[in-house]
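Methods — Computational structure assignment.
A single polypeptide chain was analysed. Its primary sequence is given first, followed by the predicted tertiary structure written as structure tokens.
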Amino acid sequence: MTPQLTDNYMVTIAERLKSAYARIALAAKKHHRNEHDVCLLAVSKTKPTEFILAAYQHGHREFGESYVQEAVDKITQLANYSDIVWHFIGPIQSNKTAAVAQHFDWVQSIDREKIAKRLNDQRPVTMHPLKALIQVNISLEAAKSGCHPDELDSLAKYIQHCPNLELRGVMAIPAKTDDPQQQIQYFEQLRACFDRLKAQYPQIDILSMGMSGDVETAIAAGSTMVRIGTDIFGQRKGDN
């Protein structure tokens, strides 16, 4: 048992999960939205399977992972929990696409045609189409993954014609900023991308934006999925 797994960790995660749901509900109410229109994705990367099971036992089913081999190990260990929905949310290297295609229900970080093609070609025909989000580099950071906003339409068109992928929306991880107006601007820009795609593809329904530090702002801007890790599972090693 790792040092993180104290006797009361299950209670702590349950309380934090409840608090996260309450935070979403409060933000939704404040901005005249239905709380049930905002999905909570519990980001469990670097956390042990015991933490995932603690959240599972309190009703949560959607989990996000960023590191392929770590995630595949967890998915394998928890294979008996067939109703867990696994989302891959990290950068995708070409040599990792097969593992993502074979093990996940969702991929939120497609940023170029090459990756989309590999995921489509490597998705087992016995599995349902891999639900796909396009990651958009909305803050135009040179070192950050995501397609340029100007490339979104062509990438969406490509994915739409991939039989083993199901295009469902967009995701972004905007640059960290202490300027509330800049933060709002990033989210509104992604919302505009989402609205533009939805006008073309009726199945588009996921606007994945907002994390532990900016949930309220994201929900105000229309997010339908917020990715929360620290506030549920505690800080990851190396976090400030």
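Note: Residues 1-7 have pLDDT under 50 and may be disordered.
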